[in-house]
Amino acid sequence: MEIKACLFDLDGVIVDTAKYHFLAWKELAADLGFDFTEEHNERLKGVSRMASLDILLEIGGETYTKEEKEEMAKSKNERYVSLIQKMTPDEILPGIIHFMNEIKNAGIKTAIGSASKNAPLIIERLKLETYFDAIIDGNKVSNAKPDPEVFLKGAEALGVQPSECVVFEDAAAGVEAALNGNMKCIGIGEKHVLGKADKVIPGFENFSLGKLLMI
Ligand code: B16
Ligand code: MG
Question: Fewest beta carbons within 10 Å, which of 54, 87, 201, 210?
Fold first, then answer.
């Protein structure tokens, strides 16, 4: 396989924003009168904002109107944005910059493929704008992972075939999205969660272009 592009999920791959999502969801749950735990938060990784809210409300056990839910999602996002606005490049996960430099120097194209509507703000806060040739985020897709839309749009924006792409993903639904799009996938995290990926690594710290070319 000739690798022409690498497509990166954002949250959980480039940066750990899950902790900020968690704080914002937990405050919303507290306002609604129930506790939201880190274990509950695991269920929201890679899931869109409204689908995350549905899971949270299911945990709370009450039903709400569409208007109420839209208001809740808005208020959670305001809390989340106020947290991520304070992020700095120090929060980029270990090994990412080195790996990005290696692949850029090798002429491999790069894109973000994220469910987050806040992806452009996060990339800006991390000062990573010049590292990505395209950003496909939650504002640009209508079908959530495991639908491959976000990654197929990434390949299209980069002018490469899906079969020439490798996706990096930390969520099981994202791994499935990559495979559904006929792309190779490297899972970032644990094998028991991401077992369908072509390879699973704990992070980028000991990863390199040489290892990428061996998949
Ligand atoms: P927002 P990813 C996902 O990003 C997160 O993993 C998920 O927890 C979040 O609910 C989703 O983005 C939507 O985020 O509320 O900012 O639009 O992992 O696909 O980069
Ligand atoms: Mg993710």
Answer: 210
Q: Is the pTM of this model over 0.70?
A: yes
31 included as an active-site residue:
no
Domain shared by 69 and 99, yes or no: no
Residue 66 burial by CB count (10 A; 0-12/13-18/19+): exposed, middle or buried? exposed
Segment 163-178 mean pLDDT: 96
Check residue 93 and report its DSSP letter.
P
pLDDT tens for each residue of 86-140:
999 999 999 999 999 999 999 999 999 999 999 999 999 999 999 999 999 999 9
Domain that holds residue 65: 18-84
CB atoms within 10 A of CB 22: 18
Does residue 115's CB lie within 6 angstroms of at least one atom of ligand 1? yes
CATH number of the domain at 178, please. Answer: 3.40.50.1000
| Most informative mutation of 28, 116, 118, 145 for ligand 1 (most atoms within 8 A of CB) | 116
Q: What is the pLDDT of residue 45?
A: 86
